[in-house]
Design brief:
Elements (H helix, E strand, L loop, with lengths): L11 H10 L27 E5 L23 E7 L5 H15 L2 E4 L12 E2 L5 E3 L11 E2 L2 E3 L1 E11 L6 E6 L34 E2 L2 E11 L20 E9 L11 H6 L4 E4 L2 H11 L7 H8 L2 E3 L36 E4 L5 H12 L4 E2 L5 E2 L5 E4 L12 H10 L2 E4 L8 H8 L3 E5 L17 E2 L4 H13 L1 H5 L3 H8 L1 H18 L4 E3 L2
Parallel strand pairs: 2-8, 2-11, 11-12, 12-13, 13-14, 15-18, 15-19, 19-20, 20-21
Antiparallel strand pairs: 1-9, 3-7, 3-22, 4-5, 6-7, 8-9, 10-11, 16-17, 17-18
Helix pairs in contact: 6-9
């Protein structure tokens, strides 16, 4: 998460047309399908929405225009693009980011804010209401001692194909009296929903930089939606000669981007700030950014300014976000893998990835004496069971966050030989639940800063005999092996504090370095 801006250009005509024609306006568990799951697919539930057309005007090709970093334009409002009605680890991280920005109570000097009496409403330079003195709503920006609060909002969107199938439509989703685009599990976060159409109105005299004009709005996109970065921009001719909102990509993973952000975009889209959730993502982004810079140290240093670390955390590690009730095993079990609350000779795995390797481990460990249960768990003659983290046959149904924790607390070992597209949540949750974590070295798992396990629990080469031998040792001497993960556990428990430091760094980059910003007294 570092510096950025311009973003693109296609939105004012669509917004005006839609506003004129419409008067209405928006885990814990892992998927258990054996195919690799990409982060968040938008729900098909019907919600009031605002439909935005993507790429209505011609966007210049990379050879026509290079975008520049809008370092002179300070950020005043942050919008976090998030799939509507979706509960997975990615959306939860997005809500955490919104919460951490708002909870930080960052205030800055703002000469454009109108100066009215204490009893009057206060508006920003665009005529938008900042705060209603008669309301304590968290969805309004606050003014404190002549300073304005940096505020973050959730921008709930839904991706759709047009009826002809040749265009991508982006729907801004709003709530009503009966439903909301935000799952109730995220109500615990200070993450208010954007209640008006994006983009907000900006005056023509916005700050100009390198031939482009950048607004003080920043939109943070998850890495799975990099192809939508331009979808909210108002079109104009030429496409770059208009006010642009600033943009950032949060690389919560690398693999799930699926190459949507092409190599030439890393080079030509110098306006974009890259926030990286893992060292794996940082390595990926910096490699792409510096691909054509050669040995120019100054240019490499300049590229690194576009990359900022932004982590997330396991919510129940903080009392602020703990489960409403502590997970127990006293309720009626929904999966035969669940035990009586004590550790069993149980090995659990994510059935959504790496099943080719997992199946081989199970076959070798269980041999001819293996017994497959209806829920997909497999028992060995030696008393060790392998169980998918999921409900139903083969663990194909998602467990709730509480159910995942409950299952992990009964297991002794968690294995993960699939791809690690980012700093995955399940290995961390397994460690917190007292499991010995065993992985490969693929993706983020190859970076000890992302998965800081002792080397004996990480396999660069798949050796099924050694892996099975280690699993048996971890089951028979569980306490001894689990103690070796104490440093990993401490690192996980510190991630909420680390995220606060990351947000401080981002605010320093996009606000403090551009205008005066202070913490509220």
């Amino acid at each position: 998460m570092s510096g950025f801006a311009s973003l693109l250009s296609q939105f004012k005509e669509t917004t005006a047309a839609a506003a004129a024609s419409s008067s209405s306006s928006a885990g814990g568990g892992t998927g258990s399908k054996r195919s690799r799951s990409s982060f968040e697919q938008s729900s098909s539930s019907s919600q009031p929405h605002h439909q935005l057309r993507q790429k209505q005007s011609k966007i210049p090709s990379p050879s026509e225009h290079n975008y520049c970093y809008p370092s002179s334009t300070p950020i005043k409002t942050i919008y976090i693009a998030c799939p509507a009605n979706t509960e997975t680890g990615g959306p939860e991280a997005l809500h955490q980011l919104c919460h951490m920005i708002n909870s930080g109570e960052y205030y800055f000097d703002d000469d454009t804010t109108d100066k009215k009496g204490d009893d009057d409403d206060v508006h920003d330079e665009f005529g938008r209401l900042i705060t209603d003195k008669r309301s304590s709503s968290s969805s309004k920006q606050q003014v404190h001692k002549g300073k304005r609060q940096l505020k973050a909002f959730m921008l709930y969107l839904r991706e759709r194909s047009s009826s002809s199938g040749n265009k991508t439509l982006v729907e801004q989703v709003f709530g009503d009296n009966r439903s909301s685009p935000r799952p109730s599990k995220y109500d615990k976060y200070n993450a208010p929903m954007m209640e008006h159409h994006f983009p907000p109105h900006h005056p023509p005299e916005s700050t100009s930089n390198n031939g482009g004009e950048y607004s003080s709005d920043l939109v943070i996109w998850p890495e799975v939606w990099t192809h939508l970065i331009d979808s909210l921009q108002q079109p104009s001719e030429p496409a770059w000669n208009t006010t642009k909102y600033q943009s950032a990509i949060w690389w919560l993973s690398v693999n799930n981007n699926k190459g949507r952000f092409a190599p030439h975009q890393f080079i030509n889209r110098q306006d974009i700030l890259h926030l990286v959730q893992s060292s794996y993502a940082r390595d990926h982004v910096l490699t792409k950014l510096t691909a054509h810079s050669g040995s120019d140290a100054n240019k490499n240093s300049e590229q690194q300014q576009h990359v900022l670390t932004m982590t997330e955390f396991i919510p129940y590690t903080s009392s602020e976000f703990a489960f409403s009730s502590t997970p127990t095993t006293t309720s009626k079990p929904t999966n035969s893998c669940k035990g009586n609350g004590s550790k069993e000779n149980l090995v659990v795995y994510n059935p959504a990835k790496g099943m080719h390797w997992t199946d081989e481990i199970i076959r070798r460990a269980c041999g001819k004496q293996a017994k497959t249960e209806r829920d997909g768990s497999v028992s060995t003659g030696g008393g060790i069971r392998f169980c998918p983290i999921g409900k139903g046959p083969g663990g194909r149904e998602r467990l709730s966050g509480e159910e995942v924790v409950e299952l992990l607390k009964t297991a002794k070992v968690y294995i993960d030989f699939g791809p690690h597209p980012g700093m995955d949540r399940l290995p961390r949750e397994a460690c917190l639940a007292g499991c010995v974590v065993i992985t490969n070295r693929e993706g983020a798992a190859n970076f000890d800063s992302d998965v800081p396990l002792p080397s004996e629990f990480k396999f660069a080469q798949f050796d099924v005999d050694k892996i099975c031998s280690l699993i048996k040792e971890c089951c028979s001497k569980h306490d001894e092996y689990a103690e070796k993960l104490d440093k990993y556990k401490s690192w996980i428990l510190a991630q909420r504090v680390q995220m606060k430091a990351c947000v401080d760094g981002m605010v320093n980059e996009v606000v403090t370095k551009r205008i005066g910003c202070v913490k509220k007294d």
